[in-house]
């Protein structure tokens, strides 16, 4: 999942969105988003969509 996390992180940066903003948009906590970007957590399909 590390590759997926990198894709999320790169896209977030390209859109100039902070982790806090993306976490709010996705309906997850900032700690969860950080873990997803690091490849330490697997997002649910609901979060991905």
Structural description of this entry:
By secondary structure, the chain is mainly alpha-helical. The chain has one domain (2-42): Orthogonal Bundle (434 Repressor (Amino-terminal Domain)), CATH 1.10.260.40. It contains four helices and no strands. The protein has helices at 2-14, 19-26, 30-38, 45-48. Helix 2 (19-26) packs across helix 3. The radius of gyration is 10 Å and the shape is globular. The chain starts with a helix and ends with a helix. 10% of the residues are buried. The model has no long low-confidence stretch (mean pLDDT 92).
Draw up the topology in text:
Blueprint: H1 2-14, H2 19-26, H3 30-38, H4 45-48
Helix pairs in contact: 1-3, 2-3
Taking the sheet with the most strands, its summary is:
none
Structural class: mainly alpha
CATH superfamily: lambda repressor-like DNA-binding domains
CATH class: Mainly Alpha
- Helix coverage percent of residues? 55-70%
Instruction: Look up the CATH topology.
Output: 434 Repressor (Amino-terminal Domain)
The H-and-E topology, N to C, reads as HHHH
Oligomer: single chain
Instruction: Tell me the radius of gyration.
Output: 10 Å
- The total of helices stands at 4
Tally of separate domains: 1
Strands, total number:
0
Taking the alpha carbons of the first and last residues, their distance comes to 16 Å
Corresponding CATH architecture: Orthogonal Bundle
How much beta, percentage-wise?
under 5%
Q: pLDDT average, as an integer?
A: 92
Shape: globular
Low-confidence runs: none
């Amino acid at each position: 999942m590390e590759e997926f996390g990198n894709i999320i992180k790169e896209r977030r940066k390209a859109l100039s969105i902070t982790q806090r903003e993306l976490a709010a948009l996705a309906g997850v906590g900032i700690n969860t988003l950080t873990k997803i970007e690091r490849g330490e957590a697997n997002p649910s399909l609901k979060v991905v969509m």
